[in-house]
Amino acid sequence: MEKPCYEHTTEFGKRNPYLAAIVPDAIENAMDALLPDAFEAALDRRCERVYYKYQSFKTDLREGIGEVAGVLFRVARHAYEKFHIHDLVFGVYHLALHHATVDAVDAVEGRTVQDQELINSLIQATDAAAAAYCPTRKELCAAAGISDADLLLLEPVTTTTRPAYAVWVDAPRQRLVWGFRGTTDLNDMLTDACASCEPYAGGYAHWGMLQAARWFAANELPRVRGFLDQHPGYELLLVGHSLGAGTAAMLAHVIKNNAEAGRVMAGVKFQAVGVATPACLTEELAAGCSDYVTSLVLMHDVVPRFSIHNVFAMKEEMDATKWGDILADTLKDWAVPDVIENSATYKRLAASSQTHARNMRGAAARWWLELSSWAFSVRHYYGILMPNSAAQQGGSVNNTAAAATAETVRAAMDDARVVADAVAGVQQGMQNVAKVRLLRLT
After folding, report:
1. What is the mean pLDDT of residues 335-349?
2. Span of 138-142, 306-310, 401-405 with lowest mean pLDDT
3. CA dist list (Å): 77 to 10, 71, 82, 202
């Protein structure tokens, strides 16, 4: 990364460009006089790190953030159509139980590596991939075991679809090492998440990592070839971990299959070693580059196995376990535990509740019939209640009808009390059941 574009004219600014970028010009001379040189240098290094952090979080709109957003949207929409939150919460759990039940094992066949020279070279490549994570020249030189003069290029800041990288000389092994850093910041996460399948070389490739490989082929490959020309007979080793491994593998494939990149690297022997290389090529393309790309996988590391194809295959395997039916049965058992459901108290309360319910239905029916009869009687003898001469003349008849009406009202009130008692009995039964469940849970 370039230093701040501000042109410093004072000695203080030339010695401490990052610190001077935030210090007003009026107090530069005062700070230069008051602060020891060692303290100024320490502050300048801290300001440099802050500056790089700020740059790492900037998203360059001119480098295709709109395209990145479009790819992310397509991936998210496709995933949402296939997956729901309950698949992740319950489906994966039941799939793990199923695997434990059937003693599922990894189906990948392999053989023990006996070539000690190959083992040593892979260990050295792993160390180089770890060194690529170092953000400063001093740290990287210490991790790679090289001098500062052997570090030819260091770019510790990422951009959209382009991870950090470094190039250094491995003189004892007569090779140049081009190391790519793995996921460490937001830009790298965006590159990882752009997992849309891009048509490439008769198959498909991970969109984000393919864009990174093409950027390196177009912008840095000629410079690396210049470094190789300065070291005749040296080979090129591309290394990285995680995102860096995918970028190294993709770049090696681009060099091998792209005419322009092949011309740039003509006559150069190269290979790529990836640690936890993600799934960045379809099976046919991956098999075609096995002669010059090696992937290291630690035990059951999920990163090399994580791909859209494997995620959807896992979804089909989850559905085959019928975990939804199992979950429904489990919830049903949780609603009324077997201990309560089979107890004598529960059965007695359930029978009592059913009896109260039958009594309530019968009382309601009788109450309705009596109410209808009472209403009909009131309507039939309505004239009796009216204060007219005809009603006064039929006194005996009126008294008999009034007595019948009063008897009907009393019967309706008795039935209403029966209904109220039945409802109260049902409520008490439900409360008893709730108490039993509470005692069971506590």
Report:
1. 60
2. 401-405
3. 55, 10, 9, 25
3-state SS, 272-306, equals EEEECCCCCECHHHHHHCCCCEEEECCCCCCHHHC
Nearest-angstrom CA–CA distance, 360 and 418:
8
pLDDT digits (tens, 9 = 90+) for 110-149: 778 889 999 999 999 999 999 999 999 999 999 999 999 9
Give me the count of residues in the chain.
442
User: Tokens in use for 157?
Assistant: 């800041």
Task: Decide: helix, strand or coil at residue 420.
Answer: helix
**Chain position carrying tokens 């009808």:** 401
Both tokens assigned to 67:
């395209």
Of residues 186, 163, 206, 202, the one with CA closest to residue 308 = 206
Q: How far is CA 195 from the centre of its chain?
A: 13
Q: What are phi and psi of 377, to 5 degrees?
A: -65, -40
366: CB partners within 8 A, 6+ apart: 415, 418
d(C-alpha 117, C-alpha 114), whole Å:
9
- Least Cα distance to 209 among 74, 127, 200 occurs for 200
DSSP assignment of 423-438:
HHHHHHHHHHHHHHHH
Q: For residues 291 and 50, which has the higher predicted lDDT (pLDDT)?
A: 291
pLDDT above 70: percentage of residues in the chain: 67
| 160: three-class secondary structure by DSSP | coil
Helix axes 308-320, 92-102, angle to 10 degrees: 70
Q: Which residues pair with 177 in a beta bridge?
A: 168, 237
Q: Which residues of 175-204 are buried (b: 16+ CB within 10 A; e: fewer)?
A: bbbbbbbbbbeebbebbbebbbbbebbeeb
Q: Are 377 and 402 in contact (CB under 8 A)?
A: no
Query: What is the SS3 string spanning 324-370?
Result: HHHHHHHHHHHHCCHHHHCCHHHHHHHHHHHHHHHHHHHHHHHHHHH
- Identify the band that residue 195 occupies on the pLDDT scale cut at 50, 70 and 90: confident
Phi, psi of 292 (to 5 degrees): -130, 5
Residue 243's pLDDT is what? 95
Contact 187, 65 (CB under 8 A): no
Place of tokens 């790089």: 52
Confidence check: pLDDT of 69 > 70? no
